[in-house]
Amino acid sequence: MSLPDGGTYVQGSKGHLDMSIGELHMLSTHTLTAMTEELVGALSKINDALNDLQISWAGEAKAEADKLLDRYDVVSTAIFGTAKEPEKGVLNRLVAGLGHAASSYNSHEKVIEAGWTDLRDKFRVLLGGGTLDGGGGGGDSPPITEV
Q1: Which helix (H) or strand (E) covers residue 88, if one does?
Q2: Burial tier of 25 (Cβ tally within 10 Å: 0-12, 13-18, 19+)
Q3: Contact 24, 100 (CB under 8 A)
Q4: What values do phi and psi take at 2, rounded to 5?
């Protein structure tokens, strides 16, 4: 992604990000979730194959295999969490973070829209000669009919 001044988000501490609430929501709830589930399924097959192989190893090969499998378990738990606590995995946190970002972005958009709508409505009242306290007719100031 490049900035108007030619820099990139990585090079500078500033950047512009175009996002759509719908795209962000789809990414978090469908795309990333489906890809993660597919990856977990493939890794489960690898785990099963590694566990079956472990039975036939002996001596130094068994010790090396045990170290490899222990390290593999640590890494896969860090990435995917556990069956009981999947939220501890980094991928699940990423998916949840995107979902929260979409929700937060959406709620802030609604607040901003409501603020501008309220301001517009107040301007209409004032430009029509009314007052914000609900009174009609501007008294000394006639309504503005041309803008």
Answers
A1: none
A2: middle
A3: no
A4: -115, 155
- Tokens 């937060």 belong to residue: 104
Kindly calculate the radius of gyration of the chain based on its CA atoms and give it in whole angstroms. 29
SS3 143: coil
Task: Please name the residue ranges forming H helices in the chain.
Answer: 21-26, 32-54, 59-80, 90-127
Nearest to 98 by CA among 22, 4, 12, 2: 22
Alpha helices in 81-89 (DSSP H): none
Tokens representing residue 25 in the block: 């929501």
Q: What is the pLDDT of residues 61-118, one digit of tens each?
A: 888 888 888 888 888 888 888 878 888 888 888 888 888 888 888 888 889 999 999 9
pTM here is 0.49
Residues 6+ apart with CB under 8 A from 103: none
